[in-house]
Amino acid sequence: MNESHTGDLLVEPSAKYWMGTDNVGRDILSRVIFGARISVIIGLAASTIATILNLIIGIVSGYIGGKLDLILQRAVDTLMCFPSLILLMVFMSIIGPGIWQIIIVLGIVWGIVASRVIRSAVIGIKQDEYIAAAVAIGCSHTRIFIRHILPNIMAPTIILFSIRLPQVILTEAALSFLGYGIPPPFPSWGGMLSGSGRNYMFQAPWMAIWPGMALAIVVYGVNMFGDAVRDLLDPRLRGGVGSYGVSNIFNSREKSE
User: Fold this and answer.
1) Domain 28-256, second-level architecture
2) What is the pLDDT of residues 61-75, one digit of tens each?
3) Which of 21, 18, 16, 11 minimizes the C-alpha distance to 2?
4) Fewer CB atoms inside 10 A, N or C side of the chain?
5) DSSP per residue over 51-112, as a string?
6) How many helical (H) and strand (E) elements, i.e. helices and strands, does the chain have?
7) Cβ(181)–Cβ(97) under 8 Å?
8) pLDDT digits over 115-167, tens only?
C-alpha cells in the first residue's frame, strides 16, 4: 500500500490517486488512512493511562490529605512549571522515538498534570454526609473509594478523558513533526507534515494539505463528541442551556404573562 512507484512522483490528486502522491511515489490517501490508525491508538492508549493515573493520584491526594497531599501537589506543581512540549521532547530524546514510548510518556505526563481536577472533585465529595456516615459505621477506605467516591467522580473523569483525547493526538502530531514521535517508515500525520511535506509544500501542496485537514477534522470531531458527553452527563448543560435554563425560560415567560 505504501510501495514506491518511480513513475508516479509528486502526482497531483486524480481519479487514480485521490490525494496525489509524495516525492517517492507513495499514495497520500493510504498513508493518511494508516496514520489515522496510529493516531487513534496513541490517543486512546495514552488517554487511558493518563485517566488511571488521574484517578490514583487524585483520589489518594484528595481523600487522605495532610502531608501526603502536600508532597504530591508540590510534585505536580514542579512538573507544571516546565512547558509540556519541552518536557515531552526531553523524555522522548532520552527513551527514543516509538509508538509505545510516546504512549507511555504522554500517559504519565498528562496523568500527573491533570490529576488536580480529580483531586478537587474528591475534596468536594469527601465533605458530604454520606462519606461521614460510611466512616462512622466502620467502612474501610477501599470500600469508600470503590462504592462512594469513584461512582461520584465518573462524570468529570469521562469528560476529562474526552477532552484529553484530542490534546494527545495534537501533541503526538507536534512531536512527530519535530522528529521526536513516530519514526519512519510508519506514517504519522505530524511526520507527514514535516520532512518531505515541508520541503515540497510549494511544489506539491497536497502533501501538507491532506494530513493537516485529517488532523483538524479528527480533533474537531473528538471535541464535539466531548461536548456532547458533557451535555449528557451534566443536566444543566443539556440542550445548550440545560434543564435549569429551560425551566427558567418557561418560568420567566409565565411570570411575564
Assistant:
1) Orthogonal Bundle (1.10)
2) 888 888 888 888 888
3) 21
4) C
5) HHHHHHHHHHHHHH-HHHHHHHHHHHHHHHTS-HHHHHHHHHHHH-S-HHHHHHHHHHHHHH
6) 13, 0
7) yes
8) 888 888 888 888 888 888 888 888 887 888 888 888 888 888 888 888 888 88
